[in-house]
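ingest -> validate -> predict -> emit
validate: passed (alphabet ok, no gaps, 425 aa)
predict: started
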Amino acid sequence: MTSSTDPLRTLLVHADAGVADCRDTAPVTLPIAMSSTFTQRVPADLAPLIARHVEAAAAAGGHGHAEGEENEYIYSRMTTPVVTRVEAVLGALEGGYPGSTGPAHAVVYASGLAALFAVMHHYTPRRIVTQLGYHGTFAGLREYLRNRPGCVHVALSPTDTLPADLGAGDLVLLESPLNPYGDVTDLASVSSSVRAAGARLVVDATLAPPPLQFCLSFPGVDAVVHSATKFYGGHSDILGGVVATRDAATARALRGERTVVGSTLGSLEAWLLLRSLRTLTLRVRAQAATAAKLARWFAKVVDGEVPGLEGTLARVRHASLGPQPEWVKRQMAGGHSPVLAVELASRDAARAVPHLLHLARPATSLGGVETLAEWRFQHDPTMPETLVRVSVGLEDVEDLKADWTRALVAAKQIAEEAAAMAAKA
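emit:
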């Protein structure tokens, strides 16, 4: 080990050195291997005979297909060179916490929900205990349970405790931080309880990837899941998912199951993901710092301390606000999620404000370099009708505050005009 103050930055650039190298041309950036199939190995016992015939054909002006060095790749549904490399970097990242014994094992998928489905399929639990916020996960869970009548689902609220009869055969699936509010679960406590009960624990850490938190640093966490579409991709241009585990056998089994299910990440998407991971720590730390500053400013707006914005915001939710227990400081040592939630004074104001911002796109998803603002109710009717989810990008915080100042004033006026029109109707 070196005395580096930020070893993750180096790992993300060099963790795949020597993995699936293109030794013939030695490019600095890995080329995209778009082939769906790969030249197979010559049978070892026939190699001398085949080589002699190929050489004879070439001498006579014909064509041969003798292979040079051995090739481990067969068909792209299994894996590809760029998938191998991106999994090496993700494994190093997920296992890059202080005190780690080495890299974790990462398996990539065509989407975050594909990764989540793969974990449930692999563990085949008798009961799934969830503490979730993302409506897409609930939809995937319903689909998983549809043809598994023997599997029971127990849904917990953020304040519920684990079932007293938790035991072997149970799978606990939770989000930390919780989408869209950013609430953080005490993984040290929960993982200890789950492990003592003999159950499995899977954490969806999409809203706060490393370097913000390292879920696998808790011994009771069996696997961590990410939508790589979000912060890992970071540029709003790919779909992807990741499962990371400390257990090599589990990773091998997941890859085998992925092959037959057909949920492998494509080569182009894997290449884009690998490109994005190189700058992950730089992006996410900056986004997290800006989000915390913006959350504090929103809190002042809620409290009526920002002149001209009184009555525009009713509430802001972000884990950086309020008291910080010691376990939160330890778990989120790298910073809090760049995602936060604000509740406006009215439904119409919440509907309008994403379309009034100049520096935020009115779009779903999160984790990109650009700020996104979404009226969440339109996609998830379990959310408050006044809630807007904000995924903070790489813009300067003062520019964002100025943008929100103008948009909040305009949204309030629009809501008042809409109410007046409704009253006359």
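The first helix runs from residue 7 to 14.
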